[in-house]
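Records of this kind hold a single protein each, on a pair of labelled lines. With that in mind, the following record should read easily:
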Amino acid sequence: MYFKPNTPSVAQVGKTVIGFNWIGGKELEGDLPSFDSRSAVDSRDVVGILPEAGARDIEKAAKAAAEAFKSWRHVPAPVRGEIIQRLGQVVRENKEKLARILNREIGKTLREALGEVQEVIDTCTFFASEGRRLYGETIPSELPHKTLSTYRRPVGVCGVLTTCCSPLAVPAWKIIPAVLCGNTVVWKPSEDTAATAYLFARCMMDAGFPAGVVNVVQGRGANGAGAHMIAGIGKGFFQKFSLTGQTELGRTVGETCGRNLIIPTLELGAKNALVVMEDADLDNAVQGALFGAFGSGGQRCTSVGNIILHAPIAEAFKTKFLEAVAAIKVGNPVSHPEVMYGPIINARIGTAFEAHWEKGREEGATLLTGGARWTEETRTEQLLGETHKGIYMQPCVWEGVTPTMEIFQQEILGPTVNLCVAQTFEEALEMANATPYGLSSAIYTDNRIWIERFKTGIQTGMTSINNSTVGAETHVPFGGNGWSGNGARECGRWVIDWYTRWQAINDDCSGRLQLAQIETDYTKSIDYGKSNWDHI
């Protein structure tokens, strides 16, 4: 690894990483000029300098992965698991260093960054042992001297595109099970987290991943390496494609995969509902809603978007919630690790977040708090540290929001949440299902009837009871329905179905051609004479 001194004004936060593409086991420059990955916390901080991959780099990486697949697919699965275990150990040894890069690059608090690195370690621990559980089945045949069995087989080369919001955990969810199953990977991370991605690649190098099993190509999205990755689907580069990104991009990837008869994994946008019923522990519900809405600055797919309040406790919850929001500390997460959230990750997300203020006002919603970008002029005791070189937004809480409003329906990355009121449980459930998304949801209640009806009636892939919408565990399936995805699941043993194909084996040792359904006499039986049941 190579480093250079950072800009003098921010030299104290750390050096600049000099990164590369990783193709066929070699660190390579790209076809295009390099780009800077600057900190969301402080734009003066150049966290990394990375190469911009062009179309030829993507092709080179795909060819390296295809070549590696020829031998990697035959490595015994328990041995592949051992390599995954080594990766987990390398990540564990460098846990705090990786967390501090996350802290600098996208402004995630150190507490949450450490949690994300732990998620990678947990993923490695889980899948290392899954290498000994890629089970098939033996099946009885209807013909003699014949054995039927099934085996999991790897798919081939997997293309992986990931976003900036969870730049270590989400790629780990995809890459680790993919390679465990015998596939090889070409990964294009977000340009906003290029330094983090490069250091994750270095962890794989230190773990001894064979050349070409994982290939990392850096660069921009829509107008760069990301577009070349999607174009590679049509060129036959990939036999599997996995995306975490916006719903519109998911449609593009899904359509491209469909034309090429590839089954994609699509983990997309969300507008998650948290319901609070009249019997709920309000203090517990407030804490779950607070962290769900404002943890990571609301910049993750499982963030709470709509808080649906049962009318009898709506005012009491609002009072407690606004008091809690007023006590949030926001600011520079590098210099002040105690803040709840830091900056908006990039200017594009910041612009979209600011646009939602005007949209909410136009629709008639009432902004109870927030509605401005933190500046030196708007600074209060709630804002900590030097923040003028990043995009820092006040926590926003809207009320009077209904399902007909765009701010109720549309995913908005950033620290904002809507308060909505339902008169009955039935109305609350209807409102929770009123968006086209279906990723995560939550309900606070001790009423077992409501709990059961919510579990069976909610149309999300994940739901929590008396807990928030956030907080995935690596051994539990993760994924959504509707606009949140195509039904694919990541994490746990369920993800293995998306990175393997079933192969059926018909092993006939009879020495002659046996024909199922034709030679089998299903009607053959012994005639004992009919029993006379009428006399009983």
